[in-house]
Amino acid sequence: MSQLTIRKRRAWFWYRMLICIVVSAAVQYVSPWWSLIPVAMLIGFLTAPKNKSPFLAGFLAMFILWGAWSFYIDLQNDSILSERVIRLFPLPSNAISLIVLTGFLGGLINGFAMLTGDIFRRFFLLEEEKYYK
Amino acid sequence: MGRLLKFVFSLLVTGALFWVYQHKTGDIPPIGKFFSPAQGFWHNAEKQNSITYSAAQLKDLKSSVTVQFDDRLVPHIFAKNEEDLYFMQGYITAQNRLWQMDMQTRVASGRLSEIIGPKLLERDRESRRLGLSWGASRSHALMMANPDSRRVITSYCNGVNAWISSLKPADYPLEYKLLDFEPEAWTTMKSALLLKYMANMLTGYETDFEMTNIAKLYGIETLNQLFPEFPDSLDPVIPKGTLFSQSDTLLPVSPDTTYPGKFALLHNPYSRPDPAYGSNNWAISGSKSASGKPILCNDPHLGLNLPSIWYEVQLNAPGINTYGATIPGSPCVISGFNEKVAWGITNASTDVKDWYTVTFKDKSKSQYLMDSAWKPVRKLIEVFRVRGGDLVFDTIRFTEHGPVAYEESFNKRSETVNMALRWTAHDISNEMLAIYQLNKAENHADYIAATNHFDCPGQNFVFAATNGDIAIRHNGKFVKRWNQQGRFLLDGTSSSTLWQGFVPDSDNPHVLNPPQGFVSSANQHPTDQTYPYYYTGSYDYYRNRRLNRLLKDLREAKPADMMKIQNDNYNLYASEWLPYFVALLPETQYSTSEKDAMRELKGWTFFNDPDVSAAIYFQLWIDSFMSKLWDEFKVDQRALLTPSYFETWSYLKRFPESDFIDNKSTTQTETLPFLILQSFRDAVKTADKWQLENPSKQFTWANFKNTTVLHLSQQLAFSVSEIQTGGNEDILNATSSRKGASWRMVVSPGSDGEFWGVYPGGQSGNPGSKHYVDFIEQWAKGKYFQLLFLQPGEKHKRIQHVATYNP
Fold first, then answer.
1. Which segments of chain B have a pLDDT < 50?
2. Where does B130-275 have alpha helices with state H?
3. A contacts of B39 (beta carbons < 8 Å)
4. Which residue of B has its CA nearest to A66?
5. pLDDT at A133
6. Are β-strands B739-741 and B279-284 bridged in parallel, bridged antiparallel, or unpaired?
7. Is B77 inside any structural domain?
8. In this structure, is residue B591 part of a structural domain?
9. What is the predicted ipTM?
């Protein structure tokens, strides 16, 4: 495996994650939350044939999107709401832990959705992958 | 194969996560829906620097309406006609309090299990069996038959629905997301239900079962010694010496029965509203005020909840300009003022709820005995759509008395007894019309005419007008009782025990401009014994005496002096009990902490201020003493009532050697000094324990009492605890742990009047708003906000936002 291939693989990891953030943000803005599942599946299916960490890419995508989104909301709200809602959970009572929790929960399902799409793709692209190995 | 397994596993995990993220599991909200920044709770986080209340097109309006929001988010609604006015009241109130409106009507109509699940089914059955929805539907018909009340509640209803239909799921109040349900359309019936919710809260308390059991255990004579109906030191709402009219000379006939009758001991009844839902109100005439004009004050004491039970609003349209506290879900202003008059309310506390025993013919329960004949039972089948479960049906039987709330099939209260409920909350009445007319009242005659429509819950309506009049009226639909009727369980097999009519409105206790220069009420007896009609109830014996004492001494009073009285922490019962305790305490060896406690107590001036510790020792002492003294009243599962502080006080004065003092479960004979010593030692022990368990907290009354304003969902996350405030039950500042002044108002009506108010909450019901709890700090400190009472078109620097709504 050449240096170039590895670099390409790493790059694909980030591209796929970025694509997922952008597309999912746009879709979630107008659709119910669960629209992130088909989006991640589709991106997992269509992109990055050489990537080996589809779960991580999916997880990070939604961790960043939900985390940043809620962080932005929280900033404009002076943490009035987050400091109340966090008390529903046995976690440190501050806004950041609620934002991290939000990101984690979004990441968890998004990671599995992308993983599912990625594995699904391999049924079709098996020969090609063999060739690169 | 490995790839296929991996795929299936990954797909299953994603699917399982989807299911958990989309559905409520136990008390855990649907995670995905709830956490999604676009639609979940994050969407309820209001931007701090932008305006949430923008103008909108509302096609149901007749003409444009302007709403000015002041710095406390109080809407000042200026409409060109009444339809638009109440439409906008509904619209704006729903904007701020939709979930609360929904929940409170669900409580009244027994529909909580629809959203919470089976664990609230029994509570729902109880609500339906008490017949509140039945009563509401009867009153609803009357409201819709009167053109004024129909216009008001229909417009309000349309406004609420205009708001609801503008909502996307992302916009639903946070609590809908937490409990995972959706708002449903508002109806005029729901406003009727809300009034019954209040009627239950304020007239739901009675002691028929307890009194019956006590009479059975100890006899009528002892019962009357323990619970005298007219104690000596009575300071009634209507000043002693006032002459009462009696236009109805046909007095009720007392049946030939003896009390308590042949009943087995009764079990504890349904959970009933707290008797301490009391209130204070008063008005002083110009002769006592610095300005020479009357000042009126009101502070209703209710459960301390979030979103707050009250919502402030100013309503202005041609023919009406009023301001005050409203109940979300019900149009008009309940406690407030207009340009000419001001009014306030306290609970009448008079018993309008009686239980009758029912004898069914057979197991089918389709006939009941009345005057030795069998009469048909009317049946009503109630349906409960329990969340996550099946439909549940419950048959409620009605006799001529009312719903048979207690039966063998539900919460039976004794082995043999079925019981029907007769309650004025079931009767047809139009309180909405009373409030509507009161909002427009210009003088004393208008106030009388308006309050005539107010049947249940009976209230002491205080009144002050710019022409200098002050008045108070103990008003409602009160039963014309024979002596003792309604104090005990009644025999439902005889028509002689039925209610024989009601006290005419014109005979309800009332006084206008009494020579003392003030009128007041604090849930005490409405009258002295010269009042021609018999009544019974649960009355206050401390706040009223303290209040009248303070009001008698007033000269040149300003609103600030009135505020001081509303926040008065003087503990009258302690001032009577403590010297008595100390005098009877025997000489003996005391521990160091007991000596410290005694030093605190002896230096105490009887004020339950937030930072004192003596109040803790005293409260623990008297509570321990009461439980030791009245140990006879603790019989497993049986409905019994211990005498109050005041009743105990006057009993011990008269019977210092009473047999109740001895604890029957011990071999020795206890004496009063022994009980007092024992309970003192218990108190000090409990206080020491509290200090050990709360090392980080100062040992103060406020910390010990821990006043909490609790969110209606019982979630502490959305509540405010450990509020630093003094007072207690039976003190003018009636703030205990979970109850207190839910609205404080001090007003001097008129164009150059002064208007002050505060309540423990905020105008917004959204925990994501800075207006959610922004009044609590001021409230706890006994401070007030100046209320903006505007004229149409008037500009004020405190108005932060103006929204115009066009048809």
1. none
2. 132-145, 147-165, 174-179, 188-203, 208-226
3. 32-33
4. B37
5. 39
6. unpaired
7. no
8. yes
9. 0.92
